[in-house]
Q: What sequence folds into this?
């Protein structure tokens, strides 16, 4: 008798759909617009990174505007404020903190998103105390505010 089944271990059939793996470079038009933008920003960052250290202002110029645009935060009802000066006293009354927020997104005077960029090679965790201090400077202390710290390579979201 001739058995036409393959020798060795048999595969069990699964009802789950098969996943096809695609290389992004081979199928660029199958990505959604978010995927294309993400790949473009990553390539841009890596190109700058290949030339050496990336400064905080470079991160602010090459990455932050496209992200804000994609999130829809550049148009009404939102307003973007760059380098917003903040000064506030800590509850003990003796400590005064001040500094410049890199990017602040507001809506009707309420702070919504605070972005702090730091240079390549720094940990986003090193900018966390500064970002939290800026968030404490929110004039509407009871209103929620979201923070984003980035080096362009690492991102940390804070609430």
A:
């Amino acid at each position: 008798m001739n058995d036409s089944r393959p020798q060795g271990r048999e595969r069990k059939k699964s009802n789950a759909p098969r996943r096809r793996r695609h290389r992004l470079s081979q199928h660029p038009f199958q990505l959604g617009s978010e995927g294309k933008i993400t790949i473009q920003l990553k390539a841009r960052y890596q190109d700058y990174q290949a030339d050496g250290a990336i400064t905080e202002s470079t991160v602010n110029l090459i990455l932050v505007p496209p992200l804000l645009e994609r999130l829809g935060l550049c148009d009404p009802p939102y307003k973007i404020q760059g380098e917003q000066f903040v000064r506030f006293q800590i509850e003990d009354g003796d400590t005064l903190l001040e500094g410049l927020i890199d990017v602040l997104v507001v809506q009707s005077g309420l702070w919504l998103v605070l972005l702090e960029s730091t240079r390549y090679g720094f940990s986003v965790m090193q900018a966390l105390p500064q970002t939290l201090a800026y968030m404490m400077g929110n004039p509407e202390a009871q209103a929620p505010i979201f923070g984003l710290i980035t080096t362009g390579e690492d991102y940390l979201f804070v609430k």
About this structure: Helices lie at 33-50, 56-62, 64-70, 128-136. Confidence is low (pLDDT under 50) at residues 16-30.
